[in-house]
Amino acid sequence: MSTQDEQDMTGRVALVTGGGSGLGRATSIRLAAAGATVLVADIDDDGARTTVKSIESQGADARPVHLDVTDSAAVDTVLGEAFAEHGVHFDCLVNNAGTDRGADVVDVTDEQWRSVFGVNVDGPMHTSRAFLRRVLEQGPRHTPADIVSVVSISALTVGSGAAAYNASKAALLKLTEVLQTETRERGWPVRVCALSPSAMNTPMMDQWKLPPEKMMDPAGVASLIHRAVTLAPTMVLQSMVVTGRTEFYPR
Description:
Elements: E1 13-17, H1 22-33, E2 37-42, H2 45-57, E3 62-66, H3 72-86, E4 90-95, H4 110-138, E5 145-150, H5 163-186, E6 190-197, H6 218-228, E7 239-242
Parallel strand pairs: 1-2, 1-4, 2-3, 4-5, 5-6, 6-7
Helix pairs in contact: 1-2, 1-6, 3-4, 4-5
């Protein structure tokens, strides 16, 4: 069983994409409560500021960061500035930003398809690439840096009406597995985790009108992200699927 000291993040800096709402907000609050300085990154400035205010009201440290993860140049700039300011203390990236625009294959437009893939696949690739490059530039580390990619149970199951979302999350899972393989084979001082939750009570799920009992509390999922990035340095949580107890999985 872990102790509170083992999960302490004092002195660490974490960047959470999509931190302005839902799981991103819950994760930002959780990591900040554990002692981390959290860079709350979102394209929604008001949402990011609201998250930061909630964190600061608890006496913890956070800063809002405007970030469009689909813009690779902007990602490079934002992460470059974070590393310039925080150095080796910036050692945690949570790829949480995601979007879902439900439609059957016959109805999905090119714009819908590309926008979903832009956020859900291109975004994590941009952030992970920029993060890894900077970590490697720093040289050897005593403890590994962490990347957590929030995938989805939709990467592993099949459902109608969400072709772009399901396909993009499957692609993100494979990208994350490639990152895991490369960090291991290259000996990079980074560990990479894929977390695949089922439906959570977040704004993105409003379009599906699920009953509350079918959705998980994002705070509970945030606690798993916190655990993944505070494991002993010799351990890595490769992949985890988390569902509500009423979820039919495997299907």
